[in-house]
TrEMBL record:
Function summary: Catalyzes the oxidation of 5,10-methylenetetrahydrofolate to 5,10-methenyltetrahydrofolate and then the hydrolysis of 5,10-methenyltetrahydrofolate to 10-formyltetrahydrofolate.
Name of the protein in its database record: Bifunctional protein FolD
SUPFAM superfamilies listed in its UniProt record: Aminoacid dehydrogenase-like, N-terminal domain, NAD(P)-binding Rossmann-fold domains
Encoding gene (name): folD
Pfam families: THF_DHG_CYH, THF_DHG_CYH_C
Length: 308
C-alpha cells in the first residue's frame, strides 16, 4: 500500500479562487491587517505569503511592521486602532512575539469579531461549546482536507498528537463536533505509539521532526502532518516520517505543500466570514461550518442530555 497524497497546495488554491469570485461580487473589499513585530525569518516569509494571497483574492490587505523593541503599550494601541477602524474586518498578530511582550494579553486585546486567527478566548470558548465563532485556521484547513479525501468522521477513531491551544485543542473540538471518537495525546501520555496505531485519522501537531514512525500508522489510516521543522540542511520536514508512513497510510499530507497552504486559505475564508458578519449581518456558523458536513446529526447523541 502506498498512500495517496492530500495536496493542500491544490485544495488551498481552489478555496482561494472561490473566495476571489465571492469578493468580486461584493460592494466592498474585506479588510485584513497583519501585525508583525520584528524580523523573525519564518514570520517574514509567512506574512509575505499571507499578504500576497490576500491581494490576489481581491482583499484590502496591509501588513503593519513594528520594531523588535516596540513597547507592549504601543502594540496594544495599534490593535485598539485597528479594532476601531470600520475598514478592517480581520486582525492577525503574527506569532511569536518578542519575549518582553505578553502574547496572551495581546491576543486578548483583539476584537473577537475581527479575530481571524480564532485565538481569542471568546472564540475558543464558542468553539468548545459548538457555538458560532471564528475557528483557528490550521484545524479548519485540516477539516477541509479531510472532506477533500472523503473521510467519514462520524464514529471514526481520531487521534490528535499535541495539545496546543493553536492546533491540538481546537482540532480535537472540531473532530468531536464531527462525531469522531477523539483521543488527545501529549508529553505525559503513555505508550504513544500504541495509541497512534489505533487511529483511523491521525493528526500530528507536536513540533518534533519525524517523531511519528511508519510502524505507528494503522493500515489505511489518514495521516495529517501539521508539523513544520527545519533540518540541519535547511530542508523542511514534518512531525511524521513521511517516507516510512506513506507505506502504511491510505492518505497522507506532504510537508511542505500539505497543511500550510490550507492555513492561508482559511485565514482568507475567516476574513470574508468576519466581513460578512460585520457588514452584511450574515451570521457565523458553528464550528466554522466545517464539522457538520462530516457529522450525522440524525444518529448523534452529542447534543442532548445523557450520553453526550
Amino acid at each position: 500500500m502506498v498512500a495517496q497524497l492530500l495536496d493542500g497546495k491544490a485544495v488551498g488554491a481552489r478555496i482561494r479562487a472561490g473566495l476571489a469570485d465571492r469578493v468580486r461580487a461584493l460592494p466592498f473589499r474585506p479588510g485584513l491587517r497583519v501585525v508583525r513585530v520584528g524580523d523573525d525569518p519564518a514570520s517574514v516569509v509567512y506574512v509575505r505569503s499571507k499578504d500576497r494571497a490576500a491581494k490576489e483574492a481581491g482583499y484590502d490587505s496591509e501588513t503593519i511592521l513594528l520594531p523588535e523593541d516596540v513597547a507592549e503599550s504601543a502594540l496594544l494601541e495599534t490593535i485598539a486602532r485597528l479594532n476601531a477602524d470600520p475598514a478592517v474586518d480581520g486582525i492577525l498578530v503574527q506569532l511569536p512575539l518578542p519575549k518582553h511582550i505578553d502574547a496572551q494579553k495581546v491576543l486578548e486585546a483583539v476584537d473577537p469579531a475581527k479575530d481571524v486567527d480564532g485565538f481569542h478566548p471568546v472564540n475558543a470558548g464558542r468553539l468548545a461549546a459548538g457555538l458560532p465563532g471564528l475557528v483557528p485556521c490550521t484545524p479548519k484547513g485540516v477539516m477541509h482536507l479531510l472532506a477533500e479525501a472523503g473521510v467519514k468522521l462520524s464514529g471514526a477513531r481520531a487521534v490528535v498528537l499535541g495539545r496546543s491551544a493553536i492546533v491540538g485543542r481546537p482540532m480535537a473540538a472540531l473532530l468531536l463536533a464531527a462525531d469522531a471518537t477523539v483521543t488527545m495525546l501529549h508529553s505525559r501520555s503513555r505508550d504513544i505509539a500504541a495509541e497512534c496505531r489505533r487511529a483511523e485519522v491521525l493528526v500530528a501537531a507536536v513540533g518534533r521532526a519525524n517523531m511519528v514512525q511508519g510502524d505507528w500508522i494503522a493500515p489505511g489510516a489518514v495521516v495529517i502532518d501539521v508539523g513544520i521543522n527545519r533540518k540541519a540542511d535547511g530542508k523542511l520536514t514534518g512531525d511524521v516520517d513521511f517516507e516510512a508512513a506513506k507505506e502504511h497510510a491510505g492518505w497522507i499530507t506532504p510537508v511542505p505543500g500539505g497543511v500550510g497552504p490550507m492555513t492561508i486559505a482559511c485565514l482568507l475564508e475567516n476574513t470574508l466570514e468576519a466581513a460578512l458578519a460585520r457588514r452584511a449581518h450574515v451570521p457565523l456558523e458553528p464550528n466554522g461550518g466545517v464539522a457538520e458536513t462530516h457529522a450525522t446529526p440524525e444518529q448523534s447523541y452529542g447534543h442532548g442530555p445523557g450520553l453526550a
